[in-house]
Write a structure and sequence with these properties.
The complex is a heterodimer of chains A (about 120) and B (about 120). Chain A is mainly β and about 120 residues long. Chain A has strands spanning about 5, 10-15, 20-25, 30-40, 40-50, 55, 65, 75-80, 85-95, 105, 110-115. In chain A, strand 4 (about 30-40) and strand 5 form a beta hairpin. The chains are: A mainly beta (about 120), B mainly beta (about 120).
Chain lengths: ~120, ~120
């Protein structure tokens, strides 16, 4: 079954404790991206990746890092989480990158609370 | 600038009623892509449909149908004979053809409540 898988789905953590939210897709998609969803602010793009070893900042990259060492994985790293990073996070992937856009699929979301 | 407007914040209907969710978009790109996603209470984003700007055919999928009108920059979504399981937040989204980031511009969402 084609899917985008995120882990953990739910996490409560403390300020400053590094954490990684993993994202994996089994569709051989070139493009992957991270969004956060906040009440009143909607969905905002954090980082995106056009292909392996190619990543770039979205609209709200501060406080986050990403890597794309393999095509299927695109982890989101919070080096020193703060309460304003409490949010619902979504990973997304799409079959094609620049110039050829197709359906963008989202993972199930990761609810992150930083206390 | 690109923008998606979903003017209806909340809609409440009784089961079996038909309901239309409105979506109006703004873009200067001649090529663009429109999407609808469903977000049930469990939180995931479920893809419903993608429409390319050069394809104005309307589409029907079971109880769902979409009306794409370039002349009015609208991409409305109709649920026929609504069911309680249709209760969710529905997002319309736009990706401009000139975008190099793949970023989707989302509307604010319409919360649909279907009462039994």
């Amino acid at each position: 079954e084609a899917q985008v898988t995120q882990n953990p789905r739910y996490l409560i953590t403390v300020t400053g404790k590094k954490l990684t939210v993993t994202c994996s897709q089994n569709m051989n998609h070139e493009y992957m991206s991270w969004y956060r969803q906040d009440p009143g602010l909607g969905l905002r793009q954090i980082y995106y990746s056009m292909n392996v070893e190619v990543t770039d900042k979205g609209d709200v990259p501060e406080g986050y890092k990403v890597s794309r060492k393999e095509k299927r994985n695109f982890p989101l790293i919070l080096e020193s989480p703060s309460p304003n990073q409490t949010s619902l996070y979504f990973c997304a992937s799409s079959p094609h990158g620049q110039g050829k856009w197709n359906t963008i699929y989202f993972g199930e979301g990761s609810w992150l609370t930083v206390v | 600038a690109q923008k998606v407007t979903q003017a209806q914040t909340e809609i409440s209907v009784v089961e079996k009623e038909d309901v239309t969710l409105d979506c109006v978009y703004e873009t200067r790109d001649t090529t663009y892509y429109l999407f609808w996603y469903k977000q049930p209470p469990s939180g995931e984003l479920v893809f419903l449909i993608r429409r390319n700007s050069f394809d104005e055919q309307n589409e029907i999928s079971g109880r769902y149908s979409w009306n794409f009108q370039k002349s009015t920059s609208s991409f409305n979504f109709t649920i026929t004979a609504s069911q309680v399981v249709d209760s969710a937040v529905y997002f319309c989204a736009l990706k401009g053809g000139s975008s190099n980031t793949g970023k989707l511009i989302f509307g604010q969402g319409t919360t649909l409540q279907v009462k039994p």
